[in-house]
Design goal:
about 400 residues; 2 domains; three-stranded antiparallel beta sheet; 14 strands
Amino acid sequence: MASSEEQTLETAPDVGELTPPNRTLMGPGPSDVNPRVLRAMSTPLVGHLDPSFIEIMNDVQDLLRYTFRTDNQWTIPVSGTGSASMEAAIGNVVEPGDTMLVPTNGYFGGRMASMAERAGGTVVTVDAPWGEPLDPDDVANALAEHDPDVFGFIHAETSTGVVQPDVPELTAAAHDHDALVIADTVTSLGGVELRVDEWGIDVAYSGPQKCLSCPPGASPLTLSDDAMEKVLGRDTDPRSWYLDLSLLEGYWGSDRSYHHTAPITNVYAIREALRLVAEEGIEARWERHRELAGALKAGMEGMGLEMNAPEAYWLPSLNAVRVPDGVDDGDICADLLERYDLEIASGLGDLTGEIFRIGCMGHSARPENVLLVVTALGDSLEVHGADVDPDAGVAACRRALRSL
């Protein structure tokens, strides 16, 4: 009798047709994808050095510059998810022996710290509670105390629903200490006001699957001339060959020389997603996100729920809503998936079990989706015994939507 291993080798696995559920994606990402982007991904494959693909690469770079609000020559989509873009930024700019100042006010500040340490840097922190932005005075004091080579901050903290105000003040303070500034714009690019050049940001990275509503796989990154000068003048090679920007410069720069096989269909996708941004207009897109998230916020508050972030630094693209007493956030998220095919998410890190994270991003930021979230969440909370008024929430959301 053949062994179980031999049977496995001899018998083809019986795998059925791919039929994922048709969800409405209103969590922290990915967001719903525009049909135009999906169609772009189904177009014919060409080689990654084909002259026609090089034209596509040029288009993507121009569109990314528009969306980032930058003239940076070195603006590309990194082949990988947003974490690859993040690691490319930190792993190239931070050298062994460098000091990087990172925030402690959310989950992704911790990830910055981890990547900087792996790059050989020394990490120092500027502290703020989870759910609050960095205070410019605290940043200035930390810069004076530690004199870092690099300062990183999270523009839109996905774990807390907080947007960082006063960005030009932070970058000016960093530049006074000759520190390069790295900004995490994963949940803000294409959905929340972001002006890389005007605000003095040296390096910004993002992910395509949030406000750009593009499947993950080609992730935006932009570097100033000063940042690239540091990258190209390193004494040691970055620890990652794949994400070495001095090598990628040969592929995305003027030479277009081989480095790796680009994820061609993902580049098609981000090109089309960025075309949608340009057609809408970046400032109009920022306003759409603010208005529709405002209607979502009105619905949450109308039913008796509390936002995690005050109005002054509320993040429209990622709404952190406090979990009411008497319910389990995981049960609610599972119920919404089962009964409504609706995805929202629970909290991360210090806010695990304390908040719902509700996205309002890109193609998902539509009136019908906002109303669905308010209606479904109110219903689920009521079924699970929470002290909420679902009808009042829906009414408040409808009023806000009618005013747009």
